[in-house]
């Protein structure tokens, strides 16, 4: 299967399931979407939450045994995938905006949960989240804007984002430099395909000067967008060649403002509100960790060993949770994996997904 034979946004990666799409609106006026993959009614429903610049597509890729299919095959026959405001399927993050992760915790997840609850009633609901989807969903859970979650699995990072020193530098200088000096309101992994000598083209060529590890310009741009490494997002050898070639289909363009919120959290050592004195966010805590002992939903923290985007964030968070609620939450270190390849890797269904299924089964029935 090559890049040209895989259409973007395809649902072909999930076989033998009824697909239903549920559009819904957030309290601040955005139209979002849930996609349900159903084989049969199930007492344990699973919701999948993507990260920044990706989309629900990250869970349903046709070129490998994707997470949605793996769950359906494992007996979790009612799987939902959310596209929230960070989704590459929507224009929201690349148009002019000043959204933060607080907006997502306050508006996106409660609205999505309302739709799901309307359809599934009080059946158990497990959530599996990645990257900044994981940070913001954990924020919502710890803030209490979402309730009734049976279990939460977080890949790479959750409430204590920690990043390599080079990423700190990029988070500090990048958004201002790109917006005000380079005149680029967003970063696009497809800048390599831009017309010659445009700003995006020049940025891509400059980035590629420092990335000789492969010949996929979108991969170089991904490493510029996120983390510190060559490549930063994954281990090359964990990906199928076609996934590597079409990485810009899976990780799309992203705006710059969410980076500023991440920088504040990195400085604080934990998830904090971006604008603590703004009355619009009065329902959210200034410090999302403050009530950690009261959160009864068990967490599975997936910590990729070679995480060059969010480093040891989940290992660190697990230590904090152990002090707050000993034995309630679990940590699984993923040897040989980077930030994103636990989800999109060619062997994720052998190395990673079974750990998640085991965790879900122990918190089912
Ligand atoms: Zn590459």
From TrEMBL:
Belongs to the GMC oxidoreductase family. Residues 45-156 form the AB hydrolase-1 domain. It comes from Actinomadura harenae. One of its GO terms (molecular function) is oxidoreductase activity. This is Alpha/beta fold hydrolase. Its cofactor is FAD. The lineage of its organism: Bacteria, Bacillati, Actinomycetota, Actinomycetes, Streptosporangiales. The chain crosses the membrane at residues 127-149. Pfam families: Abhydrolase_1. Keywords: FAD, Flavoprotein, Hydrolase, Membrane, Oxidoreductase, Transmembrane, Transmembrane helix.
């Amino acid at each position: 299967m090559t890049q040209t034979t895989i259409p973007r946004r395809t649902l072909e990666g999930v076989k033998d399931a009824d697909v239903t799409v549920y559009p819904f609106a957030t309290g601040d006026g955005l139209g979002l979407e849930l996609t349900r993959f159903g084989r049969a009614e199930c007492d344990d429903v699973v919701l999948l939450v993507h990260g920044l610049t990706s989309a629900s597509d990250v869970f349903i890729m046709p070129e490998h045994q994707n997470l949605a299919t793996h769950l359906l095959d494992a007996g979790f026959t009612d799987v939902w995938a959310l596209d929230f405001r960070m989704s590459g399927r929507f224009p929201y993050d690349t148009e002019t905006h000043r959204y933060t992760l607080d907006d997502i915790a306050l508006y996106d997840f409660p609205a999505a949960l309302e739709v799901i609850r309307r359809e599934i009633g009080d059946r158990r609901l497990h959530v599996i989240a990645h990257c900044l989807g994981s940070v913001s969903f954990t924020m919502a859970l710890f803030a209490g804007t979402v309730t009734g979650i049976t279990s939460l699995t977080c890949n790479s990072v959750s409430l204590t984002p920690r990043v390599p020193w080079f990423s700190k530098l990029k988070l500090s200088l990048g958004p201002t430099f790109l917006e005000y000096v380079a005149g680029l309101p967003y970063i696009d992994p497809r800048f390599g395909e831009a017309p010659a000598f445009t700003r995006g083209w020049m940025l891509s060529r400059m980035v590629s000067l420092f990335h000789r590890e492969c010949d996929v310009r979108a991969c170089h741009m991904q490493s510029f967008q996120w983390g510190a490494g060559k490549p930063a997002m994954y281990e090359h050898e964990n990906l199928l060649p076609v996934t590597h070639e079409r990485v810009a289909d899976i990780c799309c363009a992203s705006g710059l403002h969410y980076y500023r919120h991440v920088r504040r959290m990195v400085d604080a050592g934990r998830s904090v509100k971006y604008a603590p004195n703004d009355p619009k966010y009065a329902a959210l805590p200034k410090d999302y960790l403050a009530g950690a002992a009261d959160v009864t939903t068990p967490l599975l923290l997936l910590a990729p060993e070679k995480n060059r985007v969010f480093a040891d964030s989940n290992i660190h968070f697990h230590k904090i949770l152990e002090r707050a609620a000993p034995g309630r939450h679990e940590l699984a270190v993923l040897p040989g994996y980077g930030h994103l390849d636990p989800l999109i890797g060619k062997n994720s269904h052998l190395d990673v997904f079974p750990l998640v299924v085991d965790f879900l089964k122990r918190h089912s029935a």
